[in-house]
Amino acid sequence: MQGKVSPETSAENRVYVGIDVCKAWLDIFIHPIGQTLRVANNRDGLKRLKRELARYDVISIVMEATGKFHRQAHRTLHAGGFAVAVINPLRSRLFAEAIGALAKTDAIDARMLAIMAESLGLQETPPQPQEMLELQELLRARQAVVADAAALKNQLSDAKLAMVRRELKRRIDAAGGSCKRLDKEIKQRMKADPVLARRYAIVTSICGAGPVAAMTLVIAMSELGNCSNKQAAMLAGLAPLACDSGAKFGDRRIRGGRADVRAGIYMAAVAAARSNPQLKAFYQRLRDAGKTFKVAVTAVMRKLVVLANTLLRENRMWEPDYAGH
């Protein structure tokens, strides 16, 4: 398997690879030998890349998550035995700036990714199953329809002309039908998979977590159940981050993470703050302590993610009086 160092392998032959991905091609930098390469982002280009990398003992390959454009390269290289880490583009840009590389080109980005691979020892990212990728695509389509419908409703509230109002209502009705069809397809696919069906049932057992929140957590946060509670909160962008310096103790704020997850569970958090016994008490304590509605609801969102992570890890349903909550 590639990436494994054998006693016979010379240190000079060990390399780290950075790949900058775009729709048409891949820019590759092999560190520390300084070799560069550009190949097409298709099957033939990836075959050429694997032949080139077979000459070395590849310790790690790093590429950025670029929507769907990195997926074929990720899956192909992983299947070829290479250890591939897929990272957030913001992380690589901040790393480049931290080491003084302010210019940005495809070639520079590839070099920065290779140096990052050596410097940080990034963990390998296994490709997600095709079924999960398709569910994520369906969920993103649903979220886009919901966002469009909300925008259309805002336009309708300001519209004066009868013809414009009729057209907006027609488009809102069409969006509603599209959302229902997407919901049906997502639920059918999850029901057909015993593992996903069980995960969905566990999340929906939480008082306040409805179908939308459950779909969001099961599909958009497939890591739940296999990570720590702190990691789950960080992935969702709901972990309060310290901002202290010297004698100053700044307010804790959330940052980064998955905005689609936060959007998908917001209403569930509002409902849980009213109906879930434990989360209602938690929310009320924060409000009594002077926290704003937004801060308190964000904290409930974090609790929901952590609770779902715990239940999925323990493979059990939510119980109102369970001592472990």
What is the alpha-carbon Rg in Å?
Answer: 23 Å
Number of H/I helices: 12
Span of the ends, CA to CA: 43 Å
> Globular, elongated, flat, extended or rod-shaped: what is the shape?
globular
Q: Report the major sheet.
A: 5 strands, mixed
Q: What multimeric state do the chains show?
A: single chain
Beta strands, count: 7
Q: On the 0-100 scale, what is the average pLDDT?
A: 91
Strand order of the largest sheet: 3-2-1-4-5
Q: Secondary-structure element sequence?
A: EEEHEHEHHHHHHHEEHHH
Helix content: 55-70%
- Strand % is 5-15%
Low-confidence stretches: 4-9
Helix-and-strand structural type: alpha/beta
Structural write-up:
It is globular, with a radius of gyration of 23 Å. Helix 2 (71-79) links the parallel strand 4 (57-64) and strand 5. The protein has helices at residues 43-53, 71-79, 89-98, 106-120, 130-158, 162-192, 194-204, 211-220, 229-235, 259-275, 277-288, 293-314, and strands at residues 14-21, 25-31, 35-40, 57-64, 84-87, 244-245, 248-249. By secondary structure, the chain is an alpha/beta fold. The strands form two sheets. A five-stranded mixed β-sheet has the order 3-2-1-4-5. A two-stranded antiparallel ribbon has the order 6-7. Helix 3 crosses helix 4, helix 9 (229-235) packs across helix 12 (293-314) and helix 10 crosses helix 12 (293-314).
Short description:
The chain is of the alpha/beta class.
Defining key terms:
325 residues, alpha/beta, 5-stranded mixed beta sheet, two-stranded antiparallel sheet, 12 helices, 57% helix, 11% strand
Show the helix and strand layout.
Layout: E1 14-21, E2 25-31, E3 35-40, H1 43-53, E4 57-64, H2 71-79, E5 84-87, H3 89-98, H4 106-120, H5 130-158, H6 162-192, H7 194-204, H8 211-220, H9 229-235, E6 244-245, E7 248-249, H10 259-275, H11 277-288, H12 293-314
Parallel strand pairs: 1-4, 4-5
Antiparallel strand pairs: 1-2, 2-3, 6-7
